[in-house]
Amino acid sequence: FGKLFLFLAVIWGLRERRIGWVWAVIIPGAILAAGEWMQQSIPGRTPESTDVVMLLAASVLLALCEKRAA
Fold it and tell me: What is the pTM of this model?
């Protein structure tokens, strides 16, 4: 639940800066994907692709809330 809140806060913060939806999802998504890709080369670490999926779910949740508020 903590990660979902973090992802929501990041996307919301980018949207408050008047960044479009696409970039508000791509920027943190690229950072997450790069971090997961780098974890492949660290012994004993397993990358989790669920973080990127949770980011997409957070963006959908925030988009639905934004449409209702408008």
Answer: 0.82
Tell me the mean pLDDT in the region 18-38.
Answer: 93
Contact 7, 58 (CB under 8 A): yes
Report the C-alpha gap between 61 and 29 in whole angstroms.
16
Other Cβ atoms within 10 Å of 19 Cβ, number: 15
Other beta carbons within 10 Å of 3: 14
6 touches 48 (CB < 8 A): no
| Other C-beta atoms lying within 10 Å of the C-beta of residue 55 | 23
Question: In this structure, are residues 25 and 14 in contact, taking their beta carbons and an 8 Å threshold?
Answer: no
User: Sign of the CA dihedral 16, 11, 7, 36?
Assistant: negative
Q: At 48, phi and psi to the nearest 5?
A: -115, 110
In the 8-state DSSP scheme, what is residue 42? S
